[in-house]
Design goal:
The chain has 16 helices and eleven strands. The protein is α+β, with helices and mostly antiparallel strands. The strands form three sheets. A six-stranded mixed sheet has the order 1-2-3-9-6-4. It has a three-stranded antiparallel sheet with strand order 5-11-10.
C-alpha cells in the first residue's frame, strides 16, 4: 500500500515529541511497523524508518535512494525553517553516493580529517576547558550547555578548522541566528560571508589545519565548494559533540550506576558515551534520502523524491537488536551507514572531544548535580536532533584552579 495509507502522519517536530520521543517510537513500532508516515514540519510529509534492517538496506542503496534533495526542494517553500539542515549544497553530504563528485568531496574531507593529530586533541580540549570551568566554578551553579559545552565544542572546532576568533565569532552569530529562526537567506548569507573570508585567508596564509588541507587537496575545490564543505564541518562538528556531551552528562548525573557513592566505583566515561550513542544519539532522526522513483519497501510504496529519514534512535533501540551491550558493538547507527556514514576521523574526534570535555568537568567539580529534576529539563523541538535546551547544575563553589601541564588534569 502507499505510505499515505499506512496511517495518520505523526508530527516529529513538536515540543510534545521532543519531550518523549522514545515513548513515541515504541508506539510507532506497535502501530506502523518499520515505516512511519510523518511530518517534519507542518504540511511537509516524509517517511521515518524505524526498522533497523530496513534502514541498513536503504542507507546502502544509493542506486535507488539519493541524498540529493533538489527535486524535492522545488516542491516545498524555500523558507522552511528546517531547510538549512537538509537543503542541497555542493558537498559530500548532499551529493549522491554512487557518483564521482561524491567521491571527490568525500576524499577531500576525509583526508583533511586524517591530518588531525588525535594525540594533540586531548590536551587541546583540556587547555580550552580550563578557563571555561574557571569562569563559573566559584558561582556554585551553571548552565553547562551555554557556559561550558557549546563554547568548548566551538573553540575546539575552530582550532581544528583553522578559524581565527574574529571569523569564528561571525560563524557563531550565524549559528545563533539559525536557532533563533532567522530567515534562511539571512543565515546562509552570514555563513557564506564568514566561511568565504576563512577560505581566502587560508589560501593566502596556509596553516596546519583542515581548511588548508582541503584547499591543497588534489580535488581542487573552488572557493564556493570550500564554503559548502566548511558548512558541513561546522554543522556536524557543533551539533553532534554538543548533544553527545550533554546527553552523556545527563545519564551520568541521573543513573545510579554512574554515581560513585552508590556503587563503589562508577563505570568510566566511555561506558556512558557508548550507551548514549546507542540509546539516545545526538542526531536521533537523520540520514535523509530520496527515492529516485516509486519503490516498494516492506510492502509499502514510497513515493519518488519525498524524504525518507532514518530514525537512528528508534533503530538502535529495536528490541530484537539492542542487547544492552553497548561497548564495541557493530550495530550502532549513531554514525550512519553506507557511503554517507560519518568519516572515521570525524567520529574519533567527536568521541575524544566529548570524553575529555566530560572528564575535565567532573574531575574539577566532582560533586556536580542537576539543579532541577530530570523530568523538568526541556528538550529542543525539531525533527532531527536529540538536544537539551539547557543543562542547569549546582555544585559546591570552588575557587578557580590553576592550569597544570598540558597533559595533566586541571
Amino acid at each position: 500500500m502507499p505510505i499515505e495509507e499506512v496511517g495518520p502522519r505523526v508530527a516529529i517536530y513538536t515540543e510534545e515529541f521532543a519531550a518523549d520521543p522514545h515513548g513515541t517510537y515504541r508506539w510507532m513500532r506497535d502501530r506502523y511497523g518499520s515505516l512511519v508516515p510523518v511530518e517534519i514540519w507542518p504540511g511537509v510529509p516524509a517517511t521515518l524508518v524505524i526498522g533497523y534492517h530496513t534502514a541498513v538496506r536503504i542507507l546502502n542503496d544509493p542506486q535507488h535512494f539519493s541524498y540529493d534533495p533538489r527535486i524535492w526542494q522545488e516542491s516545498v517553500p524555500a523558507d522552511l525553517p528546517i531547510m538549512p539542515m537538509i537543503e542541497w549544497r555542493p558537498n559530500a553530504l548532499r551529493t549522491n553516493g554512487n557518483t564521482a563528485e561524491h567521491r571527490r568531496y568525500r576524499t577531500a574531507t576525509n583526508d583533511a580529517l586524517a591530518g588531525v593529530d588525535q594525540h594533540a586533541l586531548r590536551p587541546m580540549v583540556a587547555k580550552l576547558a580550563g578557563p571555561l570551568i574557571n569562569s563559573f566554578c566559584a558561582d556554585g551553579s551553571a548552565d553547562l550547555l551555554g557556559q561550558y559545552i557549546l563554547p568548548l565544542v566551538f573553540s575546539v572546532l575552530n582550532e581544528m578548522i583553522g578559524c581565527p576568533p574574529e571569523i569564528g565569532q561571525q560563524v557563531a552569530q550565524a549559528s545563533a541566528a539559525l536557532f533563533e529562526g532567522a530567515e534562511n537567506a539571512t543565515v546562509n548569507a552570514m555563513l557564506d560571508a564568514a566561511l568565504l573570508q576563512l577560505t581566502r585567508l587560508r589560501r593566502a596564509e596556509p596553516g596546519d589545519d583542515m581548511t588548508t588541507r582541503m584547499l591543497r587537496h588534489s580535488a581542487d575545490l573552488s572557493d564556493t565548494e570550500m564554503v559548502h564543505q566548511l558548512v558541513t564541518c561546522y554543522s556536524a562538528g557543533i551539533e553532534i559533540p554538543q548533544n553527545l556531551i550533554a546527553n552523556t552528562l545527563l545519564l551520568m548525573l541521573t543513573d545510579p550506576r554512574f554515581v560513585g557513592e552508590n556503587v563503589g566505583f562508577a563505570p568510566p566515561t566511555t561506558t556512558a558515551l557508548d550507551e548514549i550513542l546507542a540509546t539516545d544519539p545526538p542526531l536521533a532522526n537523520y540520514c535523509v534520502t530520496y527515492p529516485q522513483q516509486p519503490i516498494l519497501i516492506d510492502n509499502v510504496w514510497l513515493p519518488a523524491h519525498q524524504p525518507v529519514i532514518t530514525s537512528i534512535a528508534a533503530c538502535n533501540n529495536s528490541p530484537e537488536l539492542n542487547t544492552g551491550d553497548y561497548q564495541n558493538n557493530g550495530w550502532n547507527l549513531a554514525w550512519g551507514a553506507g557511503p554517507h556514514a560519518c568519516p572515521a576521523g570525524a567520529r574519533s574526534a567527536a568521541y575524544v572531544i566529548a570524553h575529555e570535555g566530560i572528564d575535565q568537568l567532573l574531575d574539577t567539580l566532582p560533586e556536580l548535580r542537576l539543579a532541577v529534576p530530570a523530568r523538568d529539563l526541556v528538550w529542543r523541538p525539531g525533527p532531527f536532533h536529540r538536544a537539551l535546551s539547557a543543562l542547569p547544575v549546582v555544585f559546591p563553589p570552588s575557587p578557580p584552579i590553576r592550569m597544570a601541564g598540558k597533559d595533566q588534569r586541571l
